[in-house]
Amino acid sequence: MNHSNEQQSNKLSGAEVAKHNSRESCWVIVHGRVYDVTEFMPEHPGGSKIILKYAGKDATEEFEPIHPPDTLEKYLAKDKHLGQVDMSTVEREEKEDDPEEKARQNRIKHMPILEQCYNLMDFEAVARRVMKKTAWAYYSSGADDEITMRENHSAYHKIWFRPRVLVDVEKVDFSTTMLGTKVDIPFYVTATALGKLGNPEGEVILTRGARKHNVIQMIPTLASCSFDEIVDAAEDGQVQWLQLYVNKNRDITKKIVQHAEERGCKGLFITVDAPQLGRREKDMRSKFSDTGSNVQNTGGDNVDRSQGAARAISSFIDPSLSWKDIPWFLSITKMPILLKGVQRVEDVLRAIECGLQGVVLSNHGGRQLDFARSGIEVLAEVMPVLRERGWENRIEMYVDGGVRRATDIIKALCLGAKGVGIGRPFLFAMSAYGLPGVDRAMQLLKDEMEMNMRLIGCSRVDQLNPTLVDTSGLSLHATTVPSDTLGLGVYDPLVSPQEMVRAKL
Amino acid sequence: MNHSNEQQSNKLSGAEVAKHNSRESCWVIVHGRVYDVTEFMPEHPGGSKIILKYAGKDATEEFEPIHPPDTLEKYLAKDKHLGQVDMSTVEREEKEDDPEEKARQNRIKHMPILEQCYNLMDFEAVARRVMKKTAWAYYSSGADDEITMRENHSAYHKIWFRPRVLVDVEKVDFSTTMLGTKVDIPFYVTATALGKLGNPEGEVILTRGARKHNVIQMIPTLASCSFDEIVDAAEDGQVQWLQLYVNKNRDITKKIVQHAEERGCKGLFITVDAPQLGRREKDMRSKFSDTGSNVQNTGGDNVDRSQGAARAISSFIDPSLSWKDIPWFLSITKMPILLKGVQRVEDVLRAIECGLQGVVLSNHGGRQLDFARSGIEVLAEVMPVLRERGWENRIEMYVDGGVRRATDIIKALCLGAKGVGIGRPFLFAMSAYGLPGVDRAMQLLKDEMEMNMRLIGCSRVDQLNPTLVDTSGLSLHATTVPSDTLGLGVYDPLVSPQEMVRAKL
Amino acid sequence: MNHSNEQQSNKLSGAEVAKHNSRESCWVIVHGRVYDVTEFMPEHPGGSKIILKYAGKDATEEFEPIHPPDTLEKYLAKDKHLGQVDMSTVEREEKEDDPEEKARQNRIKHMPILEQCYNLMDFEAVARRVMKKTAWAYYSSGADDEITMRENHSAYHKIWFRPRVLVDVEKVDFSTTMLGTKVDIPFYVTATALGKLGNPEGEVILTRGARKHNVIQMIPTLASCSFDEIVDAAEDGQVQWLQLYVNKNRDITKKIVQHAEERGCKGLFITVDAPQLGRREKDMRSKFSDTGSNVQNTGGDNVDRSQGAARAISSFIDPSLSWKDIPWFLSITKMPILLKGVQRVEDVLRAIECGLQGVVLSNHGGRQLDFARSGIEVLAEVMPVLRERGWENRIEMYVDGGVRRATDIIKALCLGAKGVGIGRPFLFAMSAYGLPGVDRAMQLLKDEMEMNMRLIGCSRVDQLNPTLVDTSGLSLHATTVPSDTLGLGVYDPLVSPQEMVRAKL
Amino acid sequence: MNHSNEQQSNKLSGAEVAKHNSRESCWVIVHGRVYDVTEFMPEHPGGSKIILKYAGKDATEEFEPIHPPDTLEKYLAKDKHLGQVDMSTVEREEKEDDPEEKARQNRIKHMPILEQCYNLMDFEAVARRVMKKTAWAYYSSGADDEITMRENHSAYHKIWFRPRVLVDVEKVDFSTTMLGTKVDIPFYVTATALGKLGNPEGEVILTRGARKHNVIQMIPTLASCSFDEIVDAAEDGQVQWLQLYVNKNRDITKKIVQHAEERGCKGLFITVDAPQLGRREKDMRSKFSDTGSNVQNTGGDNVDRSQGAARAISSFIDPSLSWKDIPWFLSITKMPILLKGVQRVEDVLRAIECGLQGVVLSNHGGRQLDFARSGIEVLAEVMPVLRERGWENRIEMYVDGGVRRATDIIKALCLGAKGVGIGRPFLFAMSAYGLPGVDRAMQLLKDEMEMNMRLIGCSRVDQLNPTLVDTSGLSLHATTVPSDTLGLGVYDPLVSPQEMVRAKL
């Protein structure tokens, strides 16, 4: 029986598909079509377990948010495309009465209205309650102990203001220019993967939000929407940048870059902090509870070495990428090229020497190397060196990671950044409230920005400068002496006045 | 029908007023008079929602504490004053049986007696339990994450004493002189807005408390009582100062200043840290829960941009105020002029050069720019520079924010302050216990002051000097490395000896 | 009727006494005798309320622990001693069925056995559970926010070891000499007041414990036992020191000092950190709940100014004591004289210049000036200055406050102390377990001492030196930036693996 | 009656043994043989109580895990070996229905499967739940307040990365060489005592795990398995080292060392941080609750002075060991000799001068001297001094304590270590999951290592160097100012948006 001709009119039946439900022969249905993934399974970047869960069944709902539309076309050999299935004959999975999902639906019913969100943290609080657990785990997780992920915002708390008073701040203009593009406020929407996990429409919602507030969106390589969908969602003149994972096959990379340039992208951001995609244990744990409950073997040889994933990924992301590839990039595009993920001053200097237009000081949102320093800390290390050499205008500096308040943006600009990238907060706003959420999140930042520009005593961003901040504690990575457990336990803490139980009369 | 003539003898009926209960036509009753606020509503600094809640009804109770008596006279056009209403015809709002309010009344019934308050924190603890939630939120809130608000007191904890021993401290005199006025103890009651939120009598209670303990009161521009009420409450010879928000209309400002001088004010404190009034999210959230529960629209276009408030406020507070306005102030009054809200040494030097008599190092109680440094930290930055120039006696330095203990006052004086301003603690004492509360709060400070002057080994405030304190950690803004969540989770903490369950005999 | 003749055989009746139960006429019974305290009441250092509680009644149980036996003899005029009462006629107070006391008795029944205490903290944990609340509050409380009280131990946690290895430590000798007296271990039992609050026998238990372990006891001026009782409890050759509060009446002081010398005391420690006894709010709160529950007046004029207490105390402790009194002390005794409570290097230098034999760097256990630095921190400030001048052997340095571990003792000795004073831990051991508790506490310290001398690589205390410790963080008084409340709230912490709910078979 | 002849065929009866159940005559059964321990009891390093618990009974189960197989042969005089007992006549102890044990068995039944462990902390979390309380207490406890034990891992959190980007890291090789042996990854299994407490097979499981991952195992002197059992468990060519406690009797030591050399050990690690074995209170407390519940005497003279234990141990571990013994060690073996437990730079220099091949910077896992610094901190102190002298290649530096992540290993190597020792994590993995647990733990480290080598931008361990880390905060031992209890209590924390309770329609 040859099922490989997709044009054939005879649809497969659900019963036929259902027979192929094992590691030996594994078919799955996606969007009404059947695919034989038996051979592909061991190479699946997400592991084979999750595929086996849907062996012989309809996997569309699980597949959809985490794969761009053209995934199967690109990565599964044509002869494994077995043609259409008659969906009316496919048994509908009786959804188990999942109490966790019921609780989530209930939380959604009572979720706070949008007006109750007063800052970017609030969207995260709501998203945590209303998102699917696995989606939340994917967005919210970081590397190892998530120290760097949290440090990213915490670092801003070590920077304090030295505001000026008695400056005319009636009119405040916080617009600026990034790589030649005029924007309303000095942030851009940075690239984040798998937007459909949070919202069925995916990254195009961010495109619309960016348009509304006149800021730039950086399009991710690993988007849920295809690149063209995201570009198509932009309006005339709306500027987008491209975030690039460099493929081992440079022809593919070249095609991606040149296509982006043709479609009008105004900047190429090469990710350099991810030669291998990070382990995120919160994410792994959430997936385990999803698929692992039928695994009972604790024997040593059943240990998943994750080598499949590592190997599979290596075709998407080339771990051999190095400084000697830079000239080639400069040769294939006229877009400004920036490095995303630089983490020390030596590499910033080298980027300048290579003739690049900028760097993003970033640790990938704390998702790659734990104990990498925050972008803002690295910025404070970098700028004095650049100024000493008179190089501060030869490059545009950006930082991302941990930005949650307009004061954070102002701190970065005081220290010399051209702008900041913001990622997760918009994902959370989008996941909880869709476009209105993104809209409000951006508006809140604008409101905060106007207020805080006034309060620091500056009416334009070019007035922001290092004398307005105190960063003396920024590079201190202190832990305190482990707690005096017994001492704290025996200490009888002071209390406030207690309720009066008055004598009965 | 023309209601604009206030002299008319025909009173309006409650039923007539009740018809105007919508955005299209909105009348409200205040103190037995009717006002048409339909057109004014969008400009209301507090937003239109809160007005709509009282459309067609008696708003007196809500209006009273947050508007000085002459507000409507001043800000609502005369033709919108529709005359008196026959209050007997106004339907009494059946107060809903609010369980939260019932719980509060119960807490009031069992509130601690005044003698149970042993320090200034205690009044705050009681006030938190017995105040209306919205009033508490207004007083207790700060900017953004309230980091600076808390840092203000926390900063004092970074200053430690180097006390002298074997000094004769039998007689301790901690009186001092502020702008030429002799006071019993080196603090003054600083300006805080909306005193009637905490106590129906408002700021005059503070006037009486200040009198009793011979300290100076600074009268706030945004008081609930009118300026003259507060001055009238003072006794002969009692000294008051004026805190000034500068109006865009300088004629109004001039009138305020010169009126204050005529009424005997002895100092003019121009607020310079509030070109725009801060966003305080705790306050916003508390108001939302008060008025927002009938809002069901989560759409993006219903987002309240708060522009109404910003615009409205800008007539009260001029964001264009700048150094070049200072000579004009010097020309319109003979009162000493001080800047309230200076936050870095450069601006202190400039104030001296402008011929001003003093500055208050302040961040507005942490209600304006979050991550502004504490006044006491700025003081430690300022004084060495002044001393180096020999300028330390050309100006009087004050600090406010976070003062809760006599030791805090002593620390400020050791570092060079002439005195400190205390605000919230007296508001909380007043809100919980009225004048006796304020009286006890001040007395507790005096008791602590006498004790601690002895213990530091000084019998007069002019003996306080920098060698008596260790400030080496003051300017360090440290956060610790984000917590080792897993490590802390698996650590099995030491415990104290457990109860013995003896063997049965 | 004249009751003043104590020799009269006619005993008073309980009924007669019971009539004098008011502020106007107030009699109390102590140890079977009646006293008229009507006039004395306002001068009572502990306030009049507590006396009124026992007006017309037997106050023995309350009086006993907090007054030395000869108090009434000394401080109440003879004509107020009204003679004996026939105790059989005195109505026994029906003890209310106090649920708190019942719970305490139950805790005592199940208290851990002594062997379960493995360190000094453990005695505090037990004492907290089994002591009377007021007694616990008196012992455990400190000044203001109790910051210094806690810092005292915490400071030791900032000192880390640089131990030597491969040193022969088979035989470890940690005995030393203090003011010429050979002791087994370099600590002494420092002076603490009111020992009978914790144990009916009072300070003599400490005398016996000190004897057993061959350490010195410092006898407190404010002991529950009389001075002579404590000296009598010592065995032949057992060394004791005297802690002295200097009385305004120097004749009294002289008598005390010379009596102590005659009785064999070998050191005079003049307390210099307490010109006024500290306010301890935990103590005040505990007393309030004991006596204040019938007070319903919250009016301002009922405020207790505590002036009575301050005035009364001033006869016991002279706040005018100063450096110029030192020569007089040197003239009245041959005992070595040391200052207890010195808190900065300048005063140590002066003490040397005055010819004194030593100082105790101390802040009175954190009970006087809050934010005074710990003794151990001051020691690290003092010794380098002394060594620079070559004065390190001209004086003996002691520290007290916060010592809980032998490692603390070793740290102090490494930094230059001759020995350390330990107070509260022995009080708690005595309160929980009596003499066996004190014995075990001291033995535990000896066991720890032997172990840790070995582990730091020293076989005698004279080998302890500054290179064995790292004190670089000792003088840093850091607080962290106020917590990122919202950020911490939204962070989803990592968790350890969860229980497996295996599929049912 | 003479029972000393082991060859006799007449077995003893259980009833006969049961009579000897007191301090006066105490027999115990181990592995079917009877021993008279009456005289030995007071010398038992573990105290006499635990022996008395089994007087007249079968002690095998308790004895087994904490004594090497040849213990009784070695330490009990032959005439106390009373011969075999007829086990059928020994009364089986009715195991009490211990609710704690039942709960533990239940936790074991639901323990997470091995795949749920994603990092080394996870094994500790599982082990804590499934191990016997006393075994857990022995493994997990540290000295005094366990400050150093926790600092060991915490110290790594003060070291942050300065990663390089754009380095070709396709192939990552993290193998290295230790004392000439090629290993897969730069850690070794360090020596830890009493392996059978966690797993009935004991240390041989670690031998097998080390083999599988090609790393070195250090054999502990105090293993549960005998030395030869552990060597026998190794496969051909598998390298092991010997950890040595030096016996007072140097002949015994010589025999141990030379036997190890003959059996092929490739390194001798002399423990120098334990002249006396540490007090670990968590361990003591857990043992107390096991044996102490029938003790009711709280009298002072029943205090266990622990002198028995100290004296007994002193025959195993010689506290007089010193630098002058080193030449002797060099004379008796050709194995490289290293010192384990060096804690300051001075002693590292001396070790080099003595001609030793290496040191382990270690504080014995925080089990000996509390407030000893972490090995990694000492390493940062040592290496600059060595480099200054050009001595960095004259010795191999190792660190142990607190290593939990591959990033920790990388940090140590960046700072100059040749490798790190890991102990407890493998014990916990073994205790929870046996060999598969150890296997997975090691594999996880390898996975992390590969990933993080890539992310730091190094493809071989010899590229790791100090410029890749920021250690500026490493040597800061900070505590924060004691908490502002009242202030924190009255602060009303910010909250995230609350659930919406919508108006009913």
Protein described:
Chains A, B, C, D: GO terms for molecular function: heme binding; L-lactate dehydrogenase (cytochrome) activity; metal ion binding. Chains A, B, C, D: Residues 87-106, 283-304 are annotated as: Disordered. 4 copies of one chain form a homotetramer. Chain A is 37% helix and 11% strand. With 505 residues, the first copy, chain A, is an alpha/beta fold. Chain A contains 19 helices and 15 strands. Residues 1-8 and 291-314 of chain A have low confidence and may be disordered. Chain A has helices at residues 14-18, 49-53, 60-63, 71-75, 99-109, 120-130, 133-140, 147-154, 204-212, 227-232, 250-262, 281-291, 307-316, 326-332, 345-353, 375-389, 406-414, 424-456, 485-490, and strands spanning 27-30, 33-36, 81-84, 160-161, 176-178, 181-183, 187-189, 217-219, 240-244, 268-271, 337-342, 358-361, 396-400, 419-422, 469-470. The interface between C and D is large, with 64 and 76 residues.
